Amino acid sequence: MIRATRLGVLSLLLLSQAIAQAPAPKPIPDETALRRHVQTLASEKFEGRRAGTPGAALAARYIAEEFARLGLRPCCATSHDLEQPAYRDYWQTFNLAGRGQLGQRNEMSFTDAEGATLDLRLNEDWVPLMWTASARVEEIPAVVVNGGIVAEELKRDDYAGLDLRGKAVILPSMVPEEADPHNPLARYAEPRWRATAARERGARAIIFVSSQTRLADDPLVRSEAEHAAGDAQLIAVVVSQAAARRLLAANGVRRTDVSLANEPNGAASRVRADGIRLTIQTEIVRRNLETANVIGIVEGADPALRAEAVLIGAHYDHLGLGGRGSLAPDQRAIHYGADDNASGTAALIELARIFTQQRPRRTFIFAAFGGEELGLLGSNHYVRNPVFPLAQTVAMLNMDMIGRLRQGRLTVGGVGSASEWRALVEEVNRRLTPMRSGGGAATQGIFNLTLNPDGFGPSDHASFYARRVPVLFFWTGTHEDYHRPSDTADKINYVGQTQIALFVAEIAREIDRLPQRPTYAITRGEPSGRTTGFRVYLGTIPNYAESDRGVRLEAVREGSPAARAGLKSGDLIVKLAGREVRNIYDYTNALSEMQPNVEYEVEVERDGRRLRLRITPEARRR
Question: Which site in 79, 230, 247, 275 is 20 to 30 Å from 182, CA atoms measured?
Answer without folding.
Answer: 230
